[in-house]
Structures
1.
Amino acid sequence: MKHSTTQQTRRGRRGPAHRIGRTLALVLPVVLVLSGTLAVTRVNWSGNPSHSVLTASDVSSASSSSKAVQRAPQEVLRDQLLAELQEKNPGAVLTHLQQAVNGRPSLARHCTSIARALGEAAVRMYGASRAQSYARPVCDTSFASGVLAAHG
């Protein structure tokens, strides 16, 4: 008999903390499922970045992924020189290419492709004969071969 009265006494002594705990045990899984469902609905499943919604958690992942997608130094240099070609003549741009390669020797292996791209762009801007007049032996005459490739 004493055993049954002990159980009743214990049950009777459960207070507000026990009720809060039971409520949390029932409510917390529901809240977690709903928040997970809402998070999934915020993901851009279409693959089209123009329809995406950027959330706070995406900002940190976007900044870390942008570091992984940094452009190579030769691509940055090529784009800078092509932009400079819009404002200056090819001779000045070739001088800057040579200075960049002299200042950063690791770019030397990319000098040929950059000079060739500059030659092709110069033909589009100036025409073949005028672009050829700017040719000089920067990166083994790659500028001239770029002019020739764009003209022919």
Note: DSSP finds eight helices and no strands in the chain.
2.
Amino acid sequence: MIKIFSGERESRLTVQVADTQEKIEKGLMFVEKLPENEGMLFVFSEKTYGGFWMKNTLIPLSVAFLDSDGEILKILDMHPCKEVECPAYDPKLSYHYAIEVNLGWFEKNQIKEGDYVFLE
């Protein structure tokens, strides 16, 4: 469970944790439905660069990129890709964590860049 603070508002999100290379590479591939307040937390052992791609991902997602303090640096919307070559969704900055949720979840919960995420 993670908490996301946006001003006085607090949102809770149940997450699966991807903290190994294998789990990070698989992500939410082949998932057909993601419950509304659930997502995936990607944990990188050190600052990382580069984007996420949606190969073999069946549902549209939003992704937030976070620094080591849990500050949301960038939020991007991503769309499923069943092609051989899929675009990368690159925040063009370094990050330590990423959170994937259903498309539009951050906006629906009024979560924006500059807000903070805390792990429970």
Note: Residues 21-26 form the longest helix (6 residues).
